[in-house]
Design brief:
The protein is mainly β. The chain contains six helices and 33 strands. The radius of gyration is 25 Å and the shape is globular.
Length: about 700
């Protein structure tokens, strides 16, 4: 992606953003504000957009801070751990809901399978969003299986959530049509410290209990070595029947300082989940009791062993070399019931299953990526390359209940090798107030597919040039303007190449025009116009049981993000997204795209008084369609029909208690879905027919001790 980068020194500590603005703001007002701002006399208080000292960094996004967010040449929202804590985020879905342009569908209520979409792109399995942890991709198949059906991230281990909307292909490769979400894990502290947290969630309707236990210890082990250990254990049930969930997440971080120029960092992670899946309900069953389950055979198991290694070399302040490596070994399996009797739908929750299937997928992935960043004169140049391999086993097995006969439905093997090169040059003009960043990435992807049952072999070889251009302009001390354009790629996925019919790779162009205005020292507003022109977007045709290219689609709209620090105690926020989507060609030309609500509004208030703090959050999402046909009247089985609008209100009250000796205890009570709003969606891959309820009202008790 091409944008102005404000790079901070490696030792910069993360801090909480002061403000991001309040009150609705029109784009016209934003554009006209530079003249207004220029009438003011700059001083130390008003010089709020002054750029920090530039240092070279191989990590393109840089630190997730307020300063980086303010001068980023695109739409960006950074939410740090303190904000997540005060807003009472229950899981990663809650952490992202309020972000403009982002749609989140909660499949389980326990955070293990989030569905995240950006700007009208289908959120199911977060397939069109590049999701990173500390800058490394977390998809089990970064090229061949980009759907995040294994999500090795838990909320307590995070320092910040960094959401960049819009394409980012130049520096982060394919599968980022909607942008990038970077989950930043907690850094190793400068001094030895501990964190112990316990959270208990109680579902009102069922009384189900879900516990979330977290422990962290970290600090310097010697003058040159820093170490940290994190453990997150989750046990219990969501708000529905058949939602028993067990999660284990263990992370070890190490950082070694060879000398003033060389630094080594590594992270080792083991993540394991074992869960029942309550699945979708028929409309009739939903109205009777939304907490029940009609899918007795659906379940989910997964584990991942993951390691990253980074060598950073800084021979001079103007040069940084990073060599980034990651490897993971993952095993994920869905279990699901099927009706193969020939009468009734295969996945209809109102029809008894005749078979139980399982779909184990084994992934072995390795990637190496050297990056070089050089600052010379008015140029900040980034050069990089990536080599990645994927070895995938994809099976489907079935057991027939009547005969107890086991059969193998699929036995697939996929080898993927990807090679990429990229370059960008951020050029500074007008006393560094204007930056222009052209860039280019070349992707060469080779996928070899083999069906071990019939011996069929296929290949998908793709090579694409992904250009982009970004401009950032510091119009005044209070006004920052930006525009960008970049091309994105999503290669054909393993499951899409193996059915009848040919499908082409997806490509898209992203465009943004926007800015940020510091109206007062405590009031910051931002607005972004966006557009995505999508070619050959792929969607699954359930009627014909195959994947197909929809043709051309368009996503466009405006995002407003505002935050106001009213006084030292009270902070208010308001965000709005207007979205327009359209199918431009094919059988459904003129229709809206599925799961693309036209309006989204979020508002929040955070109040602090001495040791007390409270928050209230409100979210409104308008109605949308659940299929490409734009079916309005719900079908009898719940497989199609309009998705109604809904509201979501969360509240939290907490208190800090100083324990002495540097120890601090925080106690909190929160209520999620305070109004107990009914909301649902459709289309979960192992339970695609019917309504998937989102969580009802729940109560959260939390205690956290830092020492």
């Amino acid at each position: 992606m091409f944008f102005l980068t404000i790079r901070r020194s490696p030792g910069l500590e993360y801090f909480r953003p002061r403000s991001r603005s309040f009150l609705p703001l029109s784009f016209a007002a934003l554009i006209s504000s530079p003249a207004l701002a220029q009438e003011q006399t700059p001083d130390a208080e008003n010089d709020l957009f002054t750029l920090p000292p530039l240092t070279v960094s191989g990590d393109w996004l840089g630190a997730p801070t307020e300063e980086s967010e303010k001068t980023y040449t695109g739409s960006r929202t950074v939410v740090d751990k303190e904000e997540l804590h005060k807003r009472g985020a229950l899981n990663l879905e809650d952490a992202l809901r309020a972000t403009p342009g982002v749609q989140v569908l909660d499949e389980t209520g326990t955070g293990i399978l989030p569905n995240i979409g950006v700007r009208g792109l289908n959120p199911l399995r977060s397939e069109r969003l590049q999701i990173l942890t500390d800058g490394y991709p977390i998809a089990i198949g970064p090229y061949s299986n980009v759907g995040v059906s294994l999500f090795p991230v838990t909320l307590p281990s995070l320092e910040a959530v960094d959401v960049v909307r819009g394409g980012a292909a130049v520096h982060y490769g394919p599968n980022n049509v909607g942008g990038v979400v970077n989950f930043v894990t907690r850094p190793i502290p400068a001094e030895t410290s501990h964190t112990l947290r316990e959270r208990i969630t109680i579902a009102e309707e069922t009384g189900n209990v879900f516990t979330d236990t977290y422990y962290r210890v970290g600090g310097p082990a010697s003058d040159k070595l820093d170490l940290q250990f994190q453990a997150n254990i989750q046990r219990g049930d969501g708000f529905r029947d058949r939602s028993d969930t067990q999660v284990d997440n263990f992370i070890v971080d190490a950082r070694y300082y060879l000398n003033n120029e060389n630094e080594l960092a590594t992270q080792l992670q083991y993540y394991n989940v074992d869960a029942e899946l309550p699945g979708a309900l028929t409309p009739e069953a939903y109205e009777q009791d939304r907490t029940q389950s009609q899918r007795p055979y659906d379940a989910y198991e997964a584990d991942m062993t993951r390691a990253t290694f980074t060598w950073t070399y800084n021979p001079t302040p103007d040069v940084e070399f990073q060599w980034r490596n990651f490897v993971h070994d993952a095993d994920r399996t869905f279990f699901f019931g099927q009706n193969l009797s020939g009468t009734g739908g295969v996945f209809d929750p109102g029809v008894a299953s005749t078979h139980r299937a399982d779909s184990p997928r084994l992934f072995r992935v390795y990637s190496t990526e050297p990056r070089l960043a050089i600052s010379k004169g008015r140029h900040d140049i980034t050069l990089g390359a990536r080599y990645l391999t994927e070895d995938v086993e994809f099976d489907v097995n079935r057991v027939e209940f009547a005969s107890d006969t086991r059969s193998v439905a699929r036995d697939w093997h996929l080898d993927t090798k990807a090679l990429a090169f990229y370059v960008s040059d951020t050029m500074h003009f007008l006393d560094n107030r204007l930056t222009v960043t052209p860039g280019l990435r070349y992707e060469d992807v080779n996928m070899d597919f083999r069906d071990n049952l019939n011996g069929n072999m296929e290949e998908n070889n793709t090579d694409e040039w992904l250009p982009g251009l970004t401009l950032g302009y510091q119009a005044t001390d209070r006004v920052f303007l930006f525009t960008n354009s970049q091309r994105s790629l999503v290669p054909v996925q393993i499951a899409q190449t193996t059915r009848d019919g040919d499908v082409a790779n997806e490509t898209a162009w992203n465009y943004e025009l926007g800015g940020r205005v510091q109206l007062t020292p405590d009031l910051l507003s931002s607005a972004t116009l966006f557009r995505i022109d999508y070619d050959d977007q792929i969607q699954f045709n359930r009627t014909e049981s195959r994947f197909e290219n929809l043709g051309e689609t368009r996503h466009q709209g405006i995002e407003l993000d505002n935050r106001w620090q009213v006084n030292p105690n009270l902070e208010l926020g308001l965000g709005y997204t207007f979205l327009e989507t359209e199918q431009l060609s094919g059988d459904n030309a003129g229709n809206e795209l599925p799961n693309a609500p036209e309006h989204k509004i979020s508002a929040d208030a955070v109040y602090s008084y001495h040791a007390w703090n409270g928050s209230l959050n409100w979210l409104y999402v308008s109605a949308s369609y659940s299929d490409a046909d734009n079916t309005e009247k719900e079908t009898a089985d719940g497989g199609g029909g309009e998705l109604p609008a809904y509201h979501l209100v969360n509240a939290r009250l907490g208190r800090d208690i100083a324990m002495g000796g540097g120890r601090n205890l925080n106690l909190a009570l929160a209520v999620n879905n305070l109004l107990d709003e009914d909301a649902y969606f459709r289309g979960v891959d192992v339970s695609p027919i019917g309504r998937v309820p989102q969580p009802g009202r729940s109560f959260i008790l939390e205690a956290q001790l830092d020492f």
